[in-house]
Each structure stands twice: as C-alpha cells, then as structure tokens.
Amino acid sequence: MSHPSEAKKFVKNENRVNWHDQSLWHVREKRDKAVNLFPEWEQLREKASQIKSHSLSNLDYYLEEFEKNATANGIKVHWASDAIEHNEIVFNIFREHGVRRIVKSKSMLTEECHLNPFLEKHGVEVIDSDLGERIVQLAKETPSHIVMPAIHKKKIEIDELFQKHLHTRPSNGDENYLTAAAREHLRQKFMKADAALTGVNFGIAETGEFVVCTNEGNADMGVHLTPLHIASMGIEKIIPRYEDLGVFIRLLARSATGQHVTTYTSQFRKPREGAELHIILVDNGRTVQLGREKYRRSLHCIRCGACMNTCPVYRRSGGHSYQSVVPGPIGSILSPGIDMKKHASLPFASSLCGSCSDVCPVKIDIHKQLYSWRQDITREANEEPAKKFSMRFAGWLFTHPNLYKKAGKFGRKALKILPRWMIYNSLNAWGKQREIPEPPKQSFQEWYQQNRQKNG
Amino acid sequence: MGKAEILKAIKKNKPEKLPIPSLDFPSSNGQDLKTLYEERLTAGGGEVISAKDKAEAEAIVKERMGDYKFVAGAFEALNTIDLSAIRDPHELELLDLAVFEGVLGVAENGAIWVNEEVLVHRAAPFITQHLVLFIREDQLVDKMHEAYKRLRAHDYGHGVFIAGPSKTADIEQSLVIGAHGPKSLLVIMLPPA
Ligand code: SF4
C-alpha cells in the first residue's frame, strides 16, 4: 500500500476534495477562534507537554499507582501486552457474563485492536454508538478521522445508507431527520445491550479514576444502563495528578472542534451499585515507541485531531488514504513505528509546513518527526534489496507513469491553496513531483541529499 | 503475563526522570463570571435564565413542562416519578424532564458538575428528554483549574460536567441538538445563598 495510490482514489472527485478540504478548514478556524479568546493558551500547551513528558518518564510508577487506587475503588484492572490479549480479556469477561449484545462508544484503541470483527466472529453483536462511527459501521468502512469518523461522507450517502439499514424515507440528506432516526435506532440498542465498552481520554494515577469525553452522551447512555462496563485505555493516557485534568480538559475540545469543552466530561471512579467496572491497560507497541528517543513524544497525543484538520495533505487526500487506524500527521509518525514497511509512504504524505506542530495542544514536534522518519525509511530502503522492499520512495512515483501524472495533477490542485514556499520547500515530495520533468536516473537517497544541500 | 512484561519494557525504555510542572494559573481575570457563564453555555447550545429564588425557579420549570408526563428530580412538588423508588435504570426511559441541583459551574466553558449523590441514578441526566440544572451564582468558578481544586475534596463514584444538550455534527458537520441524550438544557441561575 502507499499513500499516493490510495489518495489517487479520493482526488479523482474534485468536488469532494474541495468540500472535504473546506469542512476541515472550517473546524480549524473554529479552533483558532476558541484558542485566541484567552492569553494563557501557550502556557497551557507547555504545561501539558511537561506533564506528559514527566508521566512517560515515570510511566511504570504511575500505572501501578493507578492500578492500586482503581482497585481500591472497586474497579477491576487488567493488563494487555497486545491487541490479541486485549481482545481475549474482553471476550472472557463477556463469556463469564453471558454477554450477547454490546454498545460501544468511540474508541480508537478498540479499532486499533480490531475488536469488532473478533467479537462478531464469536457471536457478539457490536453496535458503535457514536453517530459518525455508526455511519461508517453501517457502510462497512473504517473511521476516516479520529474525532469526526464520517467526515468523508456526504449527507446524501448517509441518507441512502439509513434507508437501507434503518428503513428511513428519502429525505434528501436532512440532518435533523437522519439524526432523529439514528437516535431512535440507537436508543433501542442501548436498552437491549448486555454490556458497554468505552475508550478512555485520561486515566488519573492519583485517584484511580478515568475520564470519557463525548458530545452525544453515547458513552454514558451505554454504561449507566448496562451492568457491565469495560474501558480500554492505552497506557500513555495516564496522567499523574487529579488537577492535571484541568490542563487537559481545557485543551482537548478547543483543539478538536473549537468548543470550550465537550458536552459531557464524565468521570468514573467506582462501579455503579450492582454493576461491574473493568479497565484494560493496553501496550500494543507503546513501550517500543517509548524506547525510540526521536519519536517518544508522539505518545503525548491526546487524540484531538487538530493536526488532521490543519494538514493540507490530509484535507485533500482524505483519511482513508493513510490506511492506518490513526490517519493524518500524527498517524504518519505513529504507524511507521508499528510497521515501517507497510506505512513507509506516510511520512512523505506531508508538506512539512509545520502547521500540525503549531496546533498540537501537547506540543508534539510532528513535522520534525516526519522528517526524521523520512530519513530512517530512506536509509532502510537503500540498505535492502529493492525487490524485497516494495515501497521505495523514488520507486513508487517514477516507475508508475500513470500514477505520476495523477500525483502531478494532485500537486497542481494543491497549488491553488498552498503558499508557494510550502510547495517548493526542499523536503516536500508533493512539490518535487511537479518540478522534476522526467524520472531521474539517480536513487532517491542521492536525489534527496542533493536537493537538500541545494535548498538549505 | 501482560503486566510484568509491560512494566519491564517501560523500565527498559523510559527516559531519565523529568520534572513535573507546577500548576499555577491565575485564578481570575476579573471577568463577570455570570455573564461569561451565560455566553459560553449559550455557545454550547444551552439556555440560561435567572431566577430570584427557588420558588421562582420552580415556577419557571412548571411553565416549561407543557404536557410532559414524567418529571423527576429536585423540585419535589413537580415530580411524577420518584427517582429513589426506581431500581432498574432502564425504567428511566420514559423520563420527559429531569431537574437537578448543580454542585458547581465553570464560567469559561458553561459546564456544570453533578454527581451520583445529586442524580440518584447515573443514567438520569442522559436518558431524560429534557434537562434542567439550577445553580447558585456563588457556585460558579472561572476556570477548570479552580473546579478541580474544589472537587478534590469530594468523594464520588461517578460525576460529570454537563455543558449543554446532547449534540452531534457527524452528518456533514451540521450541528444537530439531541443526539442520544437530552434535546435541551436549561440552566437556572440563582442568587448567592
Ligand atoms: S498529535 Fe497533537 S494535534 Fe494531533 S491528534 Fe494528537 S494531540 Fe491532537
């Protein structure tokens, strides 16, 4: 797989590309408005970044502290080294309780673990309850954005989808009607569910509680009705102190959608009377990333999606073109850490304009890490026999004349919206595609070095 | 095997210990909290009405009730449902309106904190069709930092900041109020006790 060939599918439809681009830019503008309302934004980002750095440098301690306090609160704590362990823990708990139907609230971690197909294979009905997630679930797709999972879908497509699955009448994409229909449909699912599964936005070591943020209230609808709540949490989501929450809650929604806070900031400390509360602490590659000094800071991510909304490449290529659970700039530095070969093209799917790093509420140096991955990937590519390594950066473009033309076209479209320096800076493959008239005879490594020296 | 393995990997891979920052944020910027609260809650799709006392607040709710059949919560005279008599939270599905007293409100984002003690049922403020929260002006704080300072002392099994009606923008970014939970949130502001 490679980003350009996947992006090709999306850019075919120019109207859709423009529409997608504008929708996301609109969210970015809302973010700016919310952020500019108060002066201590930069201070907040700095604190958040420091808290995360500290937390990662002491992660084993905080995880154990979390476990101790959560257990004292009556929460059952589990640990999973990888996706398989995570899924087995979930299913074993379900089996014990005879669970057949579950409602899930948006959790990128369960996406990462491919939990849905696993549970379905074992006969459990899984309903994603976040509206955007439900839409992509009905369409048998994956989320294309971590905060707005169905941002790539047009109203009219959702209309057709609902007619087919929820038996709605054609409404020409009336969002009020469609949301009301989804509300009724999902209320029935909430009423009948045996268990609820959620993600976790923050886990607090000091109090052993965790926080789930939503606008729809879907996480709460699920967990407060069923006798069993399982929360899945990546180990990097831990924060040390109760009051650290003040910093992160202030940053999260503003960065994500420009709201001052999500409608619901729900905090779970003890199980409901007569109900069980479980939390699974999941590694799945995070400890490996922790050991990579250059990329460690990617673990600060609070999954706000701001870097996607601002990225000129994401906005014009769509989330699915990244072929990874977390798309966009942050996905492009996380995914190669999981499987470098599979995701080798992602660090190149960026203009390196730095906008992602500018908006990131936890100050991840995203564009620097992208640059770094490019070097690592290129080095690796040149060390291996070409046929063993299907995605050589020079290879993907210049050996496919058709693709080359399309990519050039994409580049020309990008030209309309990007300042010149952004397109012609020395690191931007998208700009380069247009500048080089013929497939070069040199290797990418040579080409890259030469151009870098030339341009600075 | 998960736990030992994970902790071992962390110990091996983590960097040298870095310091934890202090959280010294200015506690007030001199803004009128009530005005700011109103502005921010309204931006989140909620509505604010001021009342001079609890009796007036109750009258406002009563007027709003229209033909709601199932009402529960803090204004006992208006209740048709006794929350404490309900065992299975699924029964709350028929709730038209729920009224609760907020514990504290946050001016910078319009959020009001409520917890299990106030709600009786955790599900109540989510499953009801409409929600009313009342709060005293002197229970407003300016920012989340102050809110968490105060909440430190509280013990709760579950608590939630609510900052508007349930909403979604998942269909082409068009905002729709009333996704899964309440279709409206009215906050009644009472003068200091
Ligand atoms: S990398 Fe930063 S901007 Fe991107 S999703 Fe994570 S926290 Fe948000």
What's the helical proportion of residues of chain B? 25-40%
Quaternary class? heterodimer
Shape of chain B: globular
Largest interface, Cβ cutoff 8 Å: A-B, 93 and 73 residues
Ligands bound, unique = iron/sulfur cluster
Low-confidence stretches of chain A: 386-441
List keywords for this structure.
heterodimer; A: 456 residues; alpha/beta; four-stranded mixed beta sheet; 23 helices; B: alpha/beta; five-stranded parallel beta sheet; binds iron/sulfur cluster
Question: How would you summarize what this structure contains?
Answer:
The complex is a heterodimer of chains A (456) and B (193). Chain A is an alpha/beta fold. Chain A has helices at 3-11, 14-35, 41-57, 59-72, 83-97, 108-112, 115-121, 131-138, 155-166, 175-192, 218-223, 244-256, 286-290, 306-310, 312-317, 328-338, 355-359, 366-383, 393-398, 401-417, 420-424, 429-435, 444-455, and strands at residues 76-80, 101-104, 125-128, 195-198, 202-204, 209-214, 228-234, 238-239, 264-268, 276-282.
Describe the fold and architecture.
The complex is a heterodimer of chains A (456) and B (193). With 456 residues, chain A is an alpha/beta fold. Chain A is built from 23 helices and ten strands. In chain A, strands 1-10-7-4-2-3 form a six-stranded parallel sheet, with helices on both faces. In chain A, strands 8-5-6-9 form a four-stranded mixed sheet, with helices on both faces. Chain A is globular. Chain B is globular, with a radius of gyration of 20 Å. At the A-B interface, helix 2, helix 3, helix 4, strand 1 and helix 8 of A face helix 1, helix 6, strand 8 and strand 9 of B. Strand 9 of chain A pairs antiparallel with strand 8 of chain B. The complex binds iron/sulfur cluster. The site of iron/sulfur cluster has 15 residues of chain A, from helix 14.
